[in-house]
């Protein structure tokens, strides 16, 4: 547990917290790319997102490419799991904070 992480109580909060910190530090990481992918939704639910890194669009392709370099045939599963975790975070955070939420969303 990270006592400095205000999102620890939410599913996927660890990814979002690390991604926000990595963006702030201008580090290209899987978590930073995930936050960049979900930026619109995160802002909509009240989370301030640092400016994006200089990474080609779409960010989804960059994240998938990074995963495939490490995980080869398992990249698809990991990519889908990461996206599902950030969607879960957004939905649970929005619900807990009474922000507008489309609980049926399958993508940030």
Structural class: mainly alpha
Spell out the helices and strands N to C: HHHHH
Residue share in helix: 55-70%
Integer-rounded radius of gyration: 13 Å
End-to-end Cα distance, whole Å, is 25 Å
Q: pLDDT under 50 segments (min length 5)?
A: none
For the secondary structure, the number of strands is 0
Largest sheet: none
Number of helices: 5
Name the beta content range.
Answer: under 5%
Question: Looking at the structure, what is the overall shape?
Answer: globular
Mean pLDDT: 91
Please outline the helices and strands.
Blueprint: H1 13-24, H2 30-37, H3 39-44, H4 59-71, H5 75-96
Account of the 3D structure:
- This protein has a domain at about 10-45 and about 55-75.
- Helices cover about 55% and strands about 0% of the residues.
- The protein has helices spanning about 15-25, 30-35, 40-45, 60-70, 75-95.
- Helix 2 (about 30-35) runs antiparallel to helix 4 and helix 4 (about 60-70) packs across helix 5.
- The radius of gyration is 13 Å and the shape is globular.
- The model has no long low-confidence stretch (mean pLDDT about 90).
Brief sketch in words of this structure:
The chain contains 5 helices and no strands. It is mainly α and 108 residues long. The radius of gyration is 13 Å and the shape is globular.
Keywords:
globular, single chain, 108 residues, 5 helices, mainly alpha
């Amino acid at each position: 547990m990270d006592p400095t992480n205000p999102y620890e109580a939410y599913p996927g909060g660890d990814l979002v917290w690390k991604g926000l910190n990595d963006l702030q530090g201008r580090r290209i990481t899987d978590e930073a790319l995930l936050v960049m992918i979900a930026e619109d939704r995160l802002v909509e639910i009240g989370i301030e997102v640092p400016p994006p890194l200089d990474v080609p669009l779409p960010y989804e392709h960059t994240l998938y490419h990074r995963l495939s370099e490490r995980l080869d045939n398992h990249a698809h599963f990991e990519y889908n799991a990461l996206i599902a975790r950030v969607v879960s975070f957004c939905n649970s955070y929005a619900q807990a904070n009474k922000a507008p939420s489309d609980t049926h969303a399958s993508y940030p």
